[in-house]
Specification:
The complex is a heterodimer of chains A (about 375) and B (about 45). Chain A contains 9 helices and 23 strands. Chain A is of the alpha/beta class and about 375 residues long. In chain A, strand 8, helix 2 (about 90-105) and strand 9 (about 105-110) form a beta-alpha-beta unit. Chain B contains 1 helix and 2 strands. Classes of the chains: A alpha/beta (about 375), B alpha+beta (about 45).
Chain lengths: ~375, ~45
């Protein structure tokens, strides 16, 4: 970056929108100073949620949000050679960290509030994730929540007590989501949305003059549900940031929002999704049906062809696609993007089933898994109508 | 001589640096200052 002043270890503690200035504490010198602004962009991000339980402040309880957290975890593993780790939370971070800890030879226990990992996804996808965990010898402990961390005289957790039992451990990773950093904004009068994150519009403004926002501290518009939601993801933050930056510099661009696409990897399994799941779609009032299929990622005789699951959620009346979820060892994460395009374009499953996708044996079957799923979904609607 | 317009950005992970770079590209006369409480910038995962 050129000619941009970057002040690290400087915490902004107050925004004064009347005088158009911010209060900054230089953490290295503990000095407080006011800085004037003409335009302000609040990109304060989010922080890891922590459980407030007995023993929660033990030094071997970690969260993972940024580089510093990652360094801290790696240093602890290097220095203390833990044999066991307890991961709290079956979301993306917890699942990705299973692989990281297992790679370091650490016995991994994954505690989950629900009966399956990635509980926001469709059951069949979550079941496939569970299978992947079991194949990689991760101990999955469903339907329980920690109630206390037992700490020794050195201030280290030695066991996790949950609603179901007590489990010895050498370290803990809390991976139970994030909270938007909105405190200084709220204090200055910035309006928050129903999600608790900062309210914004299609040009990334806040309700206050000359103050913009972007990233994990603010909401984003979901084009499928037509609702402002909280989706703290790095790619969205980058896009919102570019729009906020351009508009604060005098430009006129907008960010039309997302359809809700994401992907992650659990050991060899790729998981990807876009749009709404059945439950969310139902809450928004659609008449929902869904179709799940299993198909080969390539023509069966090609080496490396793998089975993949595809579940489509659609509106029974209009046939419009509302969401898709996939899991498989090959060709999943990229494939979801064509369905993200279909969501942006409000396509029906019938239209999707007729798309001209590229075909050659190393890449897919003559009928791509997506086309098969869309065709079966279309038949399902026809049968029921 | 007119004073340069000041754009202040709070946060240096993903959205902050994107905004800073974009703003500077759109208007190179803009004075852009980015504050980050941590030791690193662009550190998000």
């Amino acid at each position: 970056m050129q000619d941009i002043d970057v002040l690290t270890e400087n915490r902004v503690t107050k925004i004064d929108p009347k005088e158009k200035r911010i209060e900054v504490v230089d953490l290295s010198k503990s000095e407080t100073q006011w800085f004037p602004y003409d335009k302000l962009i609040i990109a304060t991000g989010a922080r890891s949620r922590r459980l407030n339980l007995p023993g929660s402040n033990a030094k071997n309880i970690f969260t993972l949000k940024d580089l510093q957290d990652g360094i801290r975890i790696r240093e602890y593993v290097d220095e203390n050679k833990p044999k066991q780790v307890a991961i709290i939370g079956g979301g993306f971070i917890g699942l990705e960290m299973c692989e990281a800890f297992k790679t370091r030879g650490i016995e991994t226990f994954l505690f989950c509030r629900r009966d399956l990992p990635a509980g926001n996804l469709e059951r069949e996808i979550s079941e496939r994730i569970l299978k992947e965990l079991q194949e990689n010898s991760v101990h999955f402990l469903p339907n329980q929540e920690p109630i206390a961390f037992h700490v020794n005289s050195e201030g280290e957790v030695t066991s996790v007590e949950t609603t179901k039992g007590e489990y010895p451990t050498d370290m803990v990773l809390m991976a139970i989501g994030v909270i938007p950093n909105v405190e200084i904004a709220r204090e200055a009068g910035v309006e928050l949305g129903k999600t608790g994150a900062m309210k914004t519009d299609f040009v990334q403004r806040t309700n206050l003059n000359d103050i913009y926002t972007a990233g994990d501290c603010c909401e984003v518009f979901n084009q499928v549900s037509q609702d402002w939601v909280y989706t703290p993801l790095g790619d969205i933050a980058n896009k919102q940031g570019r729009v906020a930056g351009e508009n604060a510099a005098g430009g006129r661009v907008s960010f039309p929002g997302v359809v809700g696409s994401a992907a992650f990897k659990v050991f060899e399994l790729e998981v990807a999704f876009t749009g709404l799941g059945i439950q969310a779609a139902r809450q928004y009032g659609w008449d929902i049906d869904s179709q799940i299929i299993e198909a080969e990622s390539k023509v069966g005789y090609m080496p490396g062809s793998k089975r993949m699951l595809i579940k489509l959620t659609f509106d029974r009346r209009s046939g419009r696609l509302l969401g898709a979820q996939m899991a498989g060892e090959e060709g999943v994460a990229r494939r979801i993007n064509s369905l993200a395009v279909a969501l942006h374009q409000k396509m029906t499953i019938n239209e999707i089933s007729k798309l001209d996708f590229a075909y050659a044996p190393p890449f897919s079957a003559p009928l791509d898994p997506i086309l098969i799923a869309a065709e079966q979904a279309t038949k399902k609607i026809r049968r029921s109508s | 001589m007119s004073k340069k317009e000041k754009l202040v950005i709070i946060g240096g992970s993903a959205a902050g640096p994107s905004a800073a770079a974009r703003a500077k590209r759109i208007n190179s006369d803009l004075e852009v200052i980015m504050f980050e409480q941590g030791r690193f910038i662009s550190y998000g995962s």
